[in-house]
Amino acid sequence: MPHEHHHGCGHESNDHDHDHDDAALGYQDNLFQHIDRPNVVALNADGNAADIIKPWHLRLDEAKFLESDADDQLIIRIPFIGTVRLKAILLKAGPGGHTPAKISLFANAPTLDFNDIQDRPATQEIVVPQSRDLGEYAVKTAKFSNVSSITLFIPEAQGEDTTRIYYVGFLGTWTQSKSQPIITVYEAQANLADHEKIQGMDGTWSAPGH
Predict the structure, then answer these.
(1) Could you say which residues form the signal peptide (predicted)?
(2) Is 6 domain-assigned?
(3) How confident is the model at residue 15 (pLDDT cuts 50, 70, 90)?
């Protein structure tokens, strides 16, 4: 984990992107190192979903991106290591009509199915302007205060047949796993130690008898 953290201090690309206040605040609150990148999943996607989860100094880079496949709808599920309290989501998309019209955010959603997600009330929706710039969208922190995963549902692009995402990032604070009431302390420790083995943990939490 620390080796990725140090990349953000790179002297080349972290100099004058957004000047002092924005860059300093963003990097300090950036949750990149707490994202479980190997288990980031996308549906109807052409490309590797984890490619858009980039370290801070690559947030403006357009070499890697994720594009929708059969149509302009896209689902991206991003799990965290432990739990986080979200303040904002960062998004770089486009160009032009490939920009999402809006994004529905779902905190701790157990499903990745297009049919289910359209009937599920979103935790919050954000409207995305047609811009290739990096945008910061504040979330209602009270609704995102104990988040172990966040799912992004993009119902449509702004005119083009596909949606393209260059970067997704999150600002907030990491709260580890101490505030999860459903599992015991011992199970929480085991989960953290064996994290790569519990991709389906959402299902196991709701199993009868737990």
Answers:
(1) none
(2) no
(3) very low
**Token pair in block for residue 59:** 């947030």
More confident call, 24 vs 34: 34
Report angle CA 125, 35, 146 to the nearest 5 degrees. 55
Overall domain count for the chain? 1
In a domain, 149, yes or no: yes
- Three-state DSSP class for residue 170: strand
The pLDDT tens digits of the residues spanning 123-178 come to 999 999 998 999 999 999 999 999 999 999 999 999 999 999 999 999 999 886 55
Could you tell me which of 139, 131, 130 has the C-alpha nearest to residue 60? 131
- Residue given tokens 């130690």 in the structure block: 193
In CATH, what number is assigned to the domain containing residue 157? 2.60.120.470
